[in-house]
Amino acid sequence: MNVEIALKDRAYEVVLGEGVRREVFDFIRHSRPRAQALVVVTSSSFRTQSWFDFVDAERVQVIEVPEGESAKNFSALEDLCEELAQRKLSRDDVLIGVGGGAITDVVGFAAAVYLRGVPVVHVATSLVGQVDAAIGGKTAINLAAGKNLVGAFHQPLGVFCDFETLASLPERERLSGMGEIAKCWLLEGRDVRSLEATSLAQLIEMSVRLKAAIVGEDELESGRRALLNYGHTLAHAIEALALARDADELRHGEAVAIGLAYAARLAHVLGRVDADVVVRHDEVLDTLGLHRNVPRDLDTMDIVRTMGHDKKAHHDLTFVLAGPQGFEVVAGIDPETVVRVLESFRGEA
Ligand code: GLY
Q: Which residue has the least CA distance to atom 2 on ligand 1?
């Protein structure tokens, strides 16, 4: 099944289904017939999976980058660009990111800046990648000050989300994807009672369709696309703080789940929604098996300071919040309220 990202001169398709990774090279041959070099960028944990068989090492070059978030820094980006230059990748050629959200973020960014832009195709093999990171052209690396603070918009030629690659996904990676799926379920205002009866394939399709509709309307996040950052103000802060001490402590979607629960409580305390909205958030997270505990030993004031560095912040504390008019970006929230709600939320654990 294909979902179109309807951008005027850069429209492309997200191809979803079992085994669709095998269509990638035919797709590139048709869409970029002048391409001579095809360079797959991945990391060793993906390269050793049985599904990696779709990459024919005789015809395709493979470059490995470090695992996970350790690929998302200037040093790894520089190494990758040097490799591309050594292999003489030209603007006619195609870069192919194969892996999870961290891979598609850094490969997308390399594709945006190397030679001022080369074509890229993403083969998203994790749930976070398939429902969010690989779609919509956001690319980024991290700074010590926060996640994804350096990046560019660079739309891919196409995105392939192969459900077969999810079978080998570690449990925490699956849960991480569920955090982004929970965000989409809540943004769509869907009924929690139908959640259990919805298959994983349907959840992925729902998330991709929501993202396609929003990105098609607001590619560069000047308006509605910011709603896709629901739960992310707290998530990015706790993720960055946890990452600084242990790369494995908190996955992106796990942090998003915590951020969603917190955002519902903040909206309630600010008088924007009734208590039943908080209950609905908790039910959705519980049904998807997600926890909502902020890591115990992170300091509340460190978290709030880090939230102030978020890209969405306008020199203040900015959140996507539910409200009487639906979801909206709310800037300038009183820091004392943010701290009080965070303390009380942490106290629930
Ligand atoms: N991950 C949010 C966005 O792509 O806009």
A: 228
Domain 171-347: homologous superfamily in CATH: Dehydroquinate synthase-like - alpha domain (1.20.1090.10)
For the domain made up of 2-168, give the CATH fold: Rossmann fold (3.40.50)
How far is ligand 1, taken at its centre, from the CA of residue 228, in Å? 5
Most ligand 1 atoms within 8 A of CB, residue of 105, 122, 130, 132 to mutate: 132
**pLDDT tens-digit readout, 44-94:** 999 999 999 999 888 899 999 999 989 999 999 999 999 999 999 999 999
Domain boundary assignment for the chain:
2-168, 171-347
Please give the share of the chain, as a percent, with pLDDT higher than 70. Answer: 98
Cβ proximity of 87 and 62 under 8 Å = no
Going by alpha carbons, the residue nearest to atom 3 of ligand 1 is 228
3-state secondary structure (DSSP) of residue 278: helix
